[in-house]
Protein 1
Amino acid sequence: MRRAAAAPVRALSGETAAARRKVTAMGLLRMKRLGEKICMVTAHDYPSAAHVGAAGVDVALCGDSLGMVALGYADTRPVTLDEMLHHCRAARRGLGAVGDAPLLVMDLPFGAYEESPAVALRAAHRAVKEGGADGVKVEGGSPRVAATVETLVDAGVAVMGHVGLTPQAVAVTGGFRAQGRTARRARRLVDEALALERAGAFAVVAECVPATVGAALSRALAVPCVGIGAGPGCDGQVLVYSDLLGSLAHPHHASHVPRFCRVFAEVGKESRRGLAAFRDAVRTGAFPSDEYSPYAMSDAEAARFAASLARDADRRREDSDEVRRRHIADDEYEIAKLY
């Protein structure tokens, strides 16, 4: 199926995308110092990244949540490094179409970095060189993860940390459960985040923790703490693109949208309305009308074409009838009247 090349997406605010300055890891640190809130949204393909960039979002996260919202996996663990690179490249092209201002961070997926810092470094280098990412994100704050972060940063890779609910570890944590709900566990999250900061992480995501813990993390860290279900006291917020836009508006998905996610648009409902309208227009013959049939043939060429068809009309009709009879003979459901 052929269609026109993708057209550039216009900026959605008064500030044009092309005029925006490129967001960097150092720029995020400055935003924290100035008290400016950081906005981060996931982007896993060309159109989502183009819209994220045009909207003036600071950070585009090519997150492994794409396994659930784009690939249909039950959780993020099946996502492979090659799948992440494929989607990250598309996201980079989408950002590039609207000025390329947001910082693009790619999740290192489950199994791509846990074995050793050396394995993690190879995966991170691929994220930057092949995926076009500006940096990577890793989950967890254990000494092993902190050592990995230090190795990556020492090798020139910008790293974002992630504490609280770590979706790649759902088998260990017992599912998608809030974290840091006891004083002991909350203090451990603070210590883990500080360890990631000491290792060189330029920011830390805090997921599904009480608002008091999110605020405490932001106060304790010199680097930005970006919350997702972590309350208003964080230095910024991140949501999944399809969740905040209501893109997957059907009962199954609705039952899985996190409680912390506010739906800012009803894209899914409008998508279903548009698809149903298209279906009905096709079935009734209302689409395409002459207005949407723009390609014309000159009268002379149309006459020559009609004459060409007339010359062998009988033979083509016989051939078509034979093919039709063969199809019916091969269709056991038609023969048995099972339709």
Protein 2
Amino acid sequence: MRKARRAGAPNQPRGRSPSVLVKLRLRTRMDPLAAVGIVLSALLVLFLALSYQVYRRAFVPARPMWLDDFSFTPFEFQADYEEVELVTADGINFGAWHFRQPGSPQTVIVSGGHKGQRQGALGIAVALWRKGFNVILYSYRGMPGSDRAPITFGIKEVLELQAAIAFARKRIPNARIGLLGYSMGAVVSLLGAAGEPGVQALVLDSPFSDLRKLLIENVRSASKLPGTPFVWLTGLMLWLRTRCWLSACSPIEVLSSLEPRPLFFIHGGADAITNVNHSRRLYDAYRGPREIWIVQGAPHTGAYFADRPLYVERVAGFFARHLGLDVSSHLRLVEEEEVS
């Protein structure tokens, strides 16, 4: 016969001791905490991954490709040019093309866009050379034809521009220098000219007014998430890699150093990468001679492609006026309705 259950004994399931039941109850109570921990860990991983993605896309150069050696050069345009190798103050070797106009001191130095190769600006470079300007078109650090190095959105790329300016002064007697920059190159031109009083005029196509603001706008647009935390960590990654802070790339802060030199802002009205308000903000803040041309419907750095002849006439005319080159025989009359 079964033994009678002792009076007052707790009702326990068979085969489970009290210690096992206590552990099960504790495990059940800890499950919500574990879930919260898992969620927080996943959010942290996502935060780190997205921040690194922003860093990689903005500051890591593209890997070299075998096609880099199979691209157009000034040779295809039958231009009088020389291939030169230059070195920056921090020891970066980079390549440049010098389009020669013997006897002409007027010189335009062209700075390309973010992760862009110098071949991308061959069209405007050749067009300006045919108008009578010396033209120098160079590659940034990290790009094909240059030493591998992180991109800094103009903070250190200014050193390439400074080396190009020094080359122009050495090679071209009494050089009268103007700068033409696209996107990041427009910012390189702004930052570089602030420390180079000898630069006489600037054409700035699709510049941004502040790097941190630009990155936050792009993160918010691409992910629909608040951009500030991701850009903060991206900036920390940049500092750990290059010892450069994002705050060092704020063109609007150096505008007063450019006065009274003339600036010509160009921007596409449909720019989805650098909003047209960046150019408007720079234009409004500048107190020296300035012009602005908004090309309606044009995307980022798309004004040249929207109307190549008009673009060349306006840019060449601006440099001719301020660098003292007589190109009246080369320029056609620009009608008022074309400008608008």
